Structures are given as C-alpha cells and as structure tokens.
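Technical note accompanying the year-one report. For the benefit of new consortium partners, we illustrate the data format agreed upon in the data management plan: each record pairs a sequence with a structure-token string. No post-processing was applied to the example shown here.
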Amino acid sequence: MGPSGPSRSLLVFCSVLSLLVGAAVGYFTPRPRSQPITVTTPDPTPTPTLTPTPAPLRVYVSGAVQTPDVYLLPPGSLVRDAIWAAGGPAPDADLERINLARELQDQQHIHVPRRGEEHSVPPPSEGVPVPTMSARPLININTATADELQQLPRVGPALAQRIVAYREMYGPFKTPEDLMQVPGIGEAIFAAIKNYITVGP
C-alpha cells in the first residue's frame, strides 16, 4: 500500500521546500566576477640613429706622379693613398722628401718632388712654395700649348689639357680671372699662377 494522505502531503511539502531552499541558495550565492583581459602592447622598435656619412676629402696631387689632378679620397687617407690615386709616383719621384704616412686634410695640395728639383717641398700641411718665375716671360694663356702651361705652378698635364680644351670651345680668355671658369681651377690655384700669366695685348 502507498503512503496515506497525510504522509503523502508531508512528502510533497518536503520536496517543494527542498526545491525552494536549493533555489534560494543558488540565487544568493555570489558568483565569481569575471577578470578583465589585459592586452600587452609590445614596445615599438626603436628607430635606429642615422650616422651621417663623412664627406670625401678633395686633394690636389701634383709633381712627379702619373696623373696630376684633384682626387676624392675617404677620410683617414694618407699621403701615400693620394699618390697612388694619381697613378703612383713617376720614375723620377723623390719620395724621401715627403711624409707618406701623414693623414690628409680636405682641399690639401700634395706635391711630389722630382729628384734634383731645386725647390725643397715642406710637409703637405705647410703648403708648397711657389717656384720663382720672375725671370721668365709671362705665359699667354690664349696661345700657350699644354706643355707650356705646365710650367705654371700647380698646373699638371690634366689641368693644362682642360685649359686648352676650354679655350678652344669658348674662345680666348678676356681677362686672367676668366681662367677660373675652367673646371679644376679655383681661387687657390689661380692665386698661385695669376702673377705668371697674361691674356696678351
């Protein structure tokens, strides 16, 4: 036989009460709070510092070398490097009279003396003396050949050829100062030769 009426009611009541208590406990039990998600942003890659590239040295090499001219050399180059940039020493070069280990400076003039050359050449940093030409007639830059132009201070074969080529292309020089229009002749070279040249009558 099943439970009687009062027992059945009591059983139903206990079941309902149990459900209510369970629901209340579940409702009032604190739920764990969700944790915020932290997004870590990687540090930006540092921008590399740009180091400026040193400008090349502009060096004029003249005298007893294969190709006298103005050359661009990297910073830290030596007198020896300038001479080899000009094709190396000529057979009659007197290298004992210059310091091959000296470091170059921008716009420096390196003169390689020849054996038996009258004028002594000081170290490159002290400059090169201008040969005395007062006893010679002035050189006419409008009529002189390339060989004659090489008699001027600081004028080698390459520069003499440029003077002749410029003269043939643009006509005679009107004033000695016009010589500075020739590529490779700046104020320093013109100052060394201006007392020894003329444009003629």
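Partners are asked to follow this layout when depositing records. Strands lie at 57-63, 69-73, 108-112, 139-140, 197-198.
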